[in-house]
Design brief:
The chain is α+β, with helices and mostly antiparallel strands. Helices cover 47% and strands 12% of the residues. The protein has helices at residues 28-37, 44-52, 147-150, 162-175, 188-229, 232-261, 266-278, 285-294, 297-303, 305-319, 327-332, 360-378; strands at 8-9, 20-21, 25-27, 60-63, 66-74, 83-88, 97-108, 123-125, 154-159. A hairpin with an 8-residue loop joins strand 5 and strand 6 (83-88).
Length: 379
């Protein structure tokens, strides 16, 4: 049964290890599809390169075991006609087999993520704390007669929020435009620092999100208590008094302790709100002009993980005495001042007159446009 409070898993502590929630872990192919939904086009080859360079590691790796199967002929489900089927070797006594193949078959475990605490059923490793190994594709689908093949299968898992780290990597490659975006190895140290910063922030954020979910649950429970004692209007009034005099004090105290524990300040929180806003798929010039005017708060929060995270951070700042701002207003405040006039990607200028991101294609395109304008003026 799902719970209101996120289940935070605690992998080994290191700057390269991404903190994660079990509920948000996805196998590589699912993660790639999720990135595409976020307008972030990435391939398995890209993810492996980032892993090899020590920039962005999979959040976890699951090593699968195997099960032994035998192929038997029997009257399954009291059918008149016997047929051949695979059954687990440990369950063969449950069937009256007419014939049994001598050959043993092996099947790799499957990935089941149906419960909040599903990870405990598997053998879990953390790639960020291990030496890189080239990724090996799974060579069989259902059954194999090769035991070594069945016993050597694994799956890498990524937390959905690592898509934000990928966006930061893509943006950083654009910012450092004198480096080719196709040469990740050329700026690996810089990218490792960017991702490590994000991982440290994410550790703080997940704790803030857990705190927010817990206090929301507590508030609902308090309201239910008052609803049993008073009419609706009186229950609401009693709850508001309790929130102002008791709950808000507790939230503020815990929020301040959380900031100290993670060496964060309100200024750093606001900085990360801006970083998250710049990683959003809606973050464009049109966003503040048109889209934000039409999208309601709940839709904005559910559209992207980054938006939801900005909202949670805003609630934390409100708890320690800041202004409570709507998500729409927060997003509007994090506009990008410098955008390439050709590709429209954000960039950090190296000089005041710079108008392109610095990529060769954009420089050449802009130069050609300038030449065309000069020719027109001479006519």
């Amino acid at each position: 049964m799902a719970t209101d409070t996120p289940t935070l898993t605690k992998p080994p502590v290191c700057d390269q290890q991404t903190p994660f929630l079990q509920q948000k872990l996805r196998p590589v192919d699912w993660f790639i599809d999720y990135c595409k939904e976020q307008e972030l086009h990435v391939t398995q080859k890209d993810l492996e390169e980032l892993h090899r360079e020590g920039i962005l590691f999979p959040a976890a790796r699951i090593d699968f075991g195997y099960c032994i199967f035998r192929k038997i002929r029997a009257h399954f489900d009291d059918a008149e006609k016997a047929e051949w089927r695979f059954v687990a070797e440990v369950q063969m006594d449950h069937f009256k087999a007419d014939a049994v193949e001598i050959q043993r078959y092996y099947s790799t475990e499957s990935l089941m993520m149906s419960s909040d605490d599903w990870l405990k059923w598997y053998s879990v490793r953390y790639p960020a704390s291990e030496a890189y190994e080239p990724w090996k594709p799974r060579t069989h689908v259902d059954f194999t007669t090769n035991l070594a093949e069945a016993n050597d299968s694994y799956v890498y898992l990524y937390d959905k929020r690592q898509a934000i780290a990928l966006r930061m990597i893509a943006n950083s490659l654009t910012y450092r435009s004198h480096l080719s975006p196709h040469s990740i190895a050329g700026c690996a140290k810089f990218l490792r620092e960017r991702v490590s910063d994000f991982n440290r922030f994410l550790s703080f954020y997940l704790a803030a999100e857990e705190m927010h979910a817990r206090w929301i649950k507590h508030g609902r429970e308090k309201y239910q208590e008052y609803a049993k004692q008073f009419d609706e209007a009186s229950a609401q009034r009693e709850w508001e008094l309790d929130f102002r005099d008791t709950q808000l004090t507790g939230i503020c105290k815990e929020a301040e302790e959380l900031l100290v524990l993670h060496a964060m300040t309100d200024g750093k929180v606001e900085h990360w709100q801006g970083e998250l806003a710049r990683c959003g798929i809606l973050h464009s010039e049109k966003l503040t002009k048109n889209y934000l005017l039409e999208i309601d708060e709940n839709t904005l929060k559910s559209t992207e993980d980054a938006n939801h995270m900005i909202f949670i951070l805003g609630q934390l700042l409100f708890a320690i005495g800041g202004d409570e701002k709507p998500l729409r207003e927060l997003l509007r405040g994090f506009t990008v001042r410098n955008r390439c006039t050709v590709c429209h990607h954000p960039f950090e200028p190296k000089r005041e007159s710079q108008v392109t991101c610095g990529e060769k294609m954009c420089i050449d395109t802009h130069r050609n446009k300038v030449k065309q304008l000069k020719r027109k003026r001479k006519r």
